[in-house]
Amino acid sequence: MPPPTLLVADDHPLFRAALIQVLHERFAPLQTLEAASAATLGQALQDHPEVELVLLDLAMPGARGFSALLHVRGEYPQVPVVVISSNDHPRVIRRAQQFGAAGFIPKSAPAEDMGAAIRAVLDGGSWFPPMAAERSEADAALAAKLAQLTPQQFRVLLCLADGLLNKQIAHELGLAENTVKVHVTAILKKLECYSRTQAAVLVKSLETEPEAAP
């Protein structure tokens, strides 16, 4: 059997290097890949179907809160995602779980906990720190709505949230403008939104809360 391939997605090169060192110390042999933005994360997953686990920082260029997590879970449902974040507020942890993460590791966690969490997920389980936040029915409903979107529709939705016009979205994603119009219509219907502004507000709700005080 070939060694497992893990993808570390974080925009801080020093943290990526430290995490990769932990991985190689605890999971030899092992292949690791790196991504520093939402765009390079998507490209790496497209280029490397052998990836067995994504270790994902929520705060990366091109990501809006939980958008990268939702995108990976929607486009690559067979690949588990462990969120690694400096924001370990209970509600952030709970939302990551409801939006499809298989685990959540605070960046402040000791290397032993990181290793245990990653091993649990590689073995088909999950790992989350103790949480005080209650399950949110609103988040569950939002996750269900977003799960109806195709990967391309999700990309169009993020462009909508950035305030881009159809023509600009077409240029950004390499689509025909009429195709964008069809996607926008489908997105609004699936999300039960009456306007582009309402859809943009929905995307804003994916953003994480301010970092918890130390």
Automatic annotation (TrEMBL):
PROSITE patterns: HTH_LUXR_1, HTH_LUXR_2, RESPONSE_REGULATORY. This is Two component transcriptional regulator, LuxR family. It comes from Acidovorax ebreus (strain TPSY). SMART domains: HTH_LUXR, REC. Residues 5-122 form the Response regulatory domain. It holds the Pfam family Response_reg. InterPro entries: CheY-like_superfamily, EvgA-like, NreC/VraR/RcsB-like_REC, Sig_transdc_resp-reg_C-effctor, Sig_transdc_resp-reg_receiver, Tscrpt_reg_LuxR_C. The keyword DNA-binding applies.
